[in-house]
Amino acid sequence: MTMTQLHLDELSAQTAVAANSLEIRPGQEDFATPTTYTQEEPGIDPTKAWSRVIKEGDQVVGFVRAYFDDDHARPELRSCLWRITVDAAHQGSGVGRFAVEAAIDEARSRGKDHLSVIWTPGDAGPGEFFHRLGFVDSGETSYGDTIGTLTLG
Fold first, then answer.
1. Which of 40, 85, 114, 122 is 20 to 30 Å apart from 66, CA to CA?
2. Do the Cβ atoms of 141 and 118 come closer than 8 Å?
3. Going by C-beta distance under 8 Å and a sequence separation of 6 or more, which residues neighbour residue 127?
4. Backbone angles phi, psi at 46, to 5 degrees
């Protein structure tokens, strides 16, 4: 699979079922939702979330959500990559990179100068993936999660 075969689609009732059915690799469930996001999610404005499924042809192979709220009390959540889920069978094939690049494009289209991401630290976690894509560690949340920031040029 090449990234040129991947495309975004709106989140709908049909694609949401497929996105919720994506299977991740064993051990990744500990890193799927950092504590910071779990604690902050009730206070986010759902109209400011940008959610898309990633398809290869007609098959949903991933999901990406970003959040854009200039007025959020926490600066790291004002322009933030909230979630990436890539089906286990498609991991390592460019779907995650495609998801991050799509969120970057969306952030730029909204005039943002950076994109943050928060992850639970750990050897099996996504930290190295985000580092390879240019995110740098920029802090830690009160829940012990790592904040990574990518400056958009």
1. 122
2. yes
3. 119, 121, 146, 148
4. -60, -20
- The tokens 């898309």 sit on which residue? 52
Residues facing residue 136 across a β-bridge: 149
**DSSP character for 100?**
H
Length of the chain, please? 153
**What are the CA-CA distances from residue 76 to residues 30, 42, 46, 54 (Å)?**
21, 16, 17, 25
> In one letter, which amino acid is 121?
P
| pTM for this predicted structure | 0.86
Q: Which residues of 92-107 are buried (b: 16+ CB within 10 A; e: fewer)?
A: ebbbbbbbbebbbebb
Report the mean per-residue pLDDT for the chain: 88
Asked if residue 4 has pLDDT above 60, the reply is: no
Measured between alpha carbons, how far is 113 from 27 in angstroms, rounded to an integer? 34
Banded pLDDT at 1 (limits 50, 70, 90): very low
